[in-house]
Amino acid sequence: MNYLIKEAFQILQRPKTFAKLPNIFLVVFSYFICKLTKKNFVLGFPFMLMLEPTNICNLRCPLCITGSDQMTRPDGVMELTNFRKLMDEVGDYLIHLTLWSQGEPFVNRNFTEMIRIAKAKGIKTMTSTNGHFLIENAEKIVNSGLDVLIVAMDGASQQTYEKYRINGNFEKVKNGMKSISEAKKRLNSKTPEIELQFIVMKHNEHETDAIRSLAYECGAQVISIKTAQVYTEKQAAEFLPTHEKYRRYELDANGKIKTKLKEINFCRWVLLCPVINWDGTVSPCCFDKNAEYGLGNVFSNGGLKKIWKSEPYANFRQQIFTNRKDIPICSNCSEGLEVEVFEKENVGPDLNHPHPQEQNKYKSFKSAHV
Ligand code: SF4
Questions:
Q1: How big is the CA angle at 180 (ends 192 and 1), to the nearest 5 degrees?
Q2: From atom 4 of ligand 1, which residue's Cα is the shortest distance away?
Q3: Tens of pLDDT, residues 239-266
Q4: What is residue 263's predicted lDDT score, i.e. its pLDDT?
Q5: Residue 199 in contact with residue 165, Cβ under 8 Å?
């Protein structure tokens, strides 16, 4: 709760936020009406957006559809002119822009310019990267105004790291984070906040303490320990850790994996945060990795505002409120799980024994997020 209050306070301090408040009120109001009635009722336009700068990636991670060649959409990067068009249409409503979905965002050469455009609209920006393009872009990233930089680092040594991050270079990622920290100091900037993200898997679960030390060494402010998403029993056997706390799946009576789902016929994301893929296609959330749900294209079907209130979107929401388990992506996602998908901690010099005066500073907080 402290985290949410802090976040709300920061949002109010940002330029242009007050003009966005009436729309936020409408969206939050209709959200609670939907939750109560389980009927599609949408007022206002999204104040949060997830956008995919590209679906191309330099690594070959086996549980990622890009890395494992399961991507059926064409490869590409979002054009800067299209990004501008989208910001002109909905930028004045947005308070939060998540800049990733599939693919490595920094493969798009216009990526830092996109962040700069969003920041000029008073939008909080956040991205997630495999960390291989940070060294050469460090000053550009800091100067873009990016607020949060999540760096995927699933191992405390090259040997563990490359078991999942195939083609990845551990030292390069480590030095990339250090470059950002140094650039922040040089440019006297508090942002971006660096968050080291560690997906717990069978081969790295013994390294959760080592990764905390590494995060501190690289200048990260936050570490997030995340559970893995798998699709098959074979992947579950190969990748899921033994520690129950870090598994979002259990086995049913037939030995099949199923998510530890708590709430079934609801979803926040279809009411709050659409996903725009690099070519403008709209997905209901980042679990629709191949854009299979036909919600439209913001660059060729009249823009996001029209699509947000369209019949296909309304029908999709209604199906979730009525019978979510019949939608294949919705039965293997993190929304409504009994377990936390993320466990986050602020990074301190000694996480197990912080100085008494610093205990509050390093107190952990948890956040359920896609
Ligand atoms: S996959 Fe999950 S997050 Fe996406 S629409 Fe379905 S319930 Fe919501």
A1: 30
A2: 285
A3: 999 888 888 888 777 778 888 877 689 9
A4: 65
A5: no
